Amino acid sequence: MNILSERLLRALVVRMDIHIHMLLTSISCLFFITLPQSLSQPPSVFNYSACKEWPYNCGTLSGIFYPFWGENRPPHCGGGEAFRLSCHDDITTILIASHNLMVKNIHDTTRTMRVVPTDLDPNVCSLQSKNIYDDIHAKATHFLYPNPSLYSNNICEGFETPHSFSSSLVFSSSFSNLQNQMILQISFHYNKPQLCIITTILFLATTVLSSNPKFEACSPRSCGTGPPIKYPFWIPYEQEPFCGYPHFGITCMDKNPILRTSNYEFLVKDIYYSNSSFTVANIDVYEDKCPVPLYNYTFDQTPFTYSSENWNLSFFYNCSTEPIDYPTYEVDCAKNATHFSFAVFHKEALEHKNYSLNECQFMVNTPLNINESVNISSLLRMNYTEILKMGFVLNWTAPDCHYCEKSGGRCGFDGNQFLCFCKDKSYLKSCGSDPRKLRLIIGVVSGVVGALGMGIIGFLCYRRKKNRYAISYIQSRSLSSDPSSKDTEKGVQSFTQSFVPGVPLFLYDELEEATNYFDSSKELGEGGFGTVYFGKLRDGRSVAVKRLYENNFKRVAQFMNEIKILAKLVHPNLVKLYGCTSRHSRELLLVYEYIPNGTVADHLHGQRSKPGKLPWHIRMKIAVETASALNFLHHKDVIHRDVKTNNILLDSDFCVKVADFGLSRLFPDHVTHVSTAPQGTPGYVDPEYHQCYQLTKQSDVYSFGVVLVELISSLPAVDITRHRHEINLSNMAINKIHNQALHELVDPTLGFESDFKVRKMINAVAELAFQCLQSSKEMRPSMEEVVETLKDIQSDGKHKSQPEVMDITSTADDVVLLKDDPPPPSPDSNAVSKSTTPNASG
Question: Residue ranges under compositional bias (Polar residues) (predicted)?
């Protein structure tokens, strides 16, 4: 392959800034072009019926819009001689700065045209190309590239050309193929002339209706069938930068909205303006039949962050072995005869199958947002490319637009500050929010009304507060007893007709005020599908306000599900629901009782943890009350699905309140399991659930087994600083118990070595945890059996007669792990069962 052909592989991308014609340009165009031509040309020349067919075709190109013209279209259908196309069967050309160029494509939305010199000679390296670039830069008025200094010796020896190329192009020895494949191309942004008469009329009409041109300039846009695009997003080349927020520019390419950030290109699939998030997918998964994710996405120094509802699809490359009996997605184009590459959900579950992650050379995590409507069986049959096309959710940070839009304005960002563009002018927050006008009104009212006015205002404020609290605490009895009551607001009537009776209704404004407008300093933590904030109601009650992440159909369904569950569940160890907002509210909010003493996780290994602060009898009480709450849920056919110490709250008396039903599912009576997308918290998830995505009550039992081990050890469920075989606490506990080394697991502050009664109880709880953590759900006890066992341990055998549990830390030569015969006792208890003499040496 000759040097010329290799160098021709480098694509030349040239860009220019778009010039925007304002009113003066339109008026000049109208009077100095249209009017003289109309006086000098016969009427037949201006037969505009010839221009009505847009777009039109020319040669090999189709879908051509103004300002281009040619073929059978008269000159007045285009933007002038500079935009004339010569149409032939196999080629479309344009004359720019005396150079005849072949037009490969025209993108109207980005105003970009790609051309190829028609007279390239594969055997001669002339200065023709150099002349093209210089002439266009010096002479062309409509076609420019921004920086003629971007040169490099790429095509011929002795001169330079503007360039932009990829080092991964496949070489070809055929010059004609290079030309046909558009290898040598110049990409120009063209300056689109105004449609003079129409532009002027439209501009004058909008000027009459609105004195603020930025209001019209920032009207919402669309790109193909994609979501509506408005602040903080904007479309370069179609809108001015002040219509959006920095770093939020979306390019419309082939009717697809594309976001470029952190050196990645993403297809924008959906935008959720109500909660500042959007779904994107890497465009590589649409362009490559076998995409190979090689990097973890990072969004540092951008306004974007991962949503907590994303799940990871982990890609493992160059592995010496494949996992056995675990569902994987093969990456065929990244494997060979000796090494494998695959993708899996929940990589931590591989270790449950004794698969070492060290078998692979490197790993990449790709975020995913699995739609709840996806059938799991079909998900498992998909290839990973189809799954990657589902995309993932990003949250964004930008000044809030709600109040501006509510006042009829359009949001923007100009001069390093947020602005609300209204029809009359621009404001700082919302239309009509001029602080000078407000101060003037306040001054006039204060001067005229005086003391009497202040008294009236005080009285009205008192009445308003009283009335709003009354509305926020309407009970279902008063709502349903007289549905035609004129005293009930229409919104409340609509709410009660489609919502769950028995749940108090709160106004959104009251909860917004209670949380100081959802101040981040009020944030208590992340719950299932939502963030929880501390709030103070007007009646003085302290509450926890759960703000759901998305106000779309999926989240409304989840919101309804949680309300249906909590409305009928009353138990002393379940968190109490105070009320909620209407599902027609701006956001979906749940209001719970506030539990002030943190979570069990806080006290075991979090911010509140102190040696000796949580003695064993308190931990035993926590275990019994948590199990009682879960047993109550199971009797109501409800699976919690996210049992963990972070969801077990403690009041000031260390009484348990099980929280976060955001992942709950009603358990139908006619089936034995519920299939659903992979969810839950790493370290607590049932390993059998990873294999078949079948959720049963025994999934909660497994998670509770992890909680029991946390109570014994004061260690977190997952800790990547531990040995790789002990990252998951469940693995660590099973290994310690199996190797008769329970004492290495127990928190030394509990008195395990010094207090025989504590030692005996911890041994029994560890035995129960061992049974709960069995990989097969059939081997685990029911939650009812767990409660009975814990109560018996707590009462020292007085609750129910049971054989004495011996010290499982003792040494026995005949200990074996029973895997096949239920129920599965720990190895140590198996040894005890063969002895009738208590082991007092432990």
Answer: 830-842
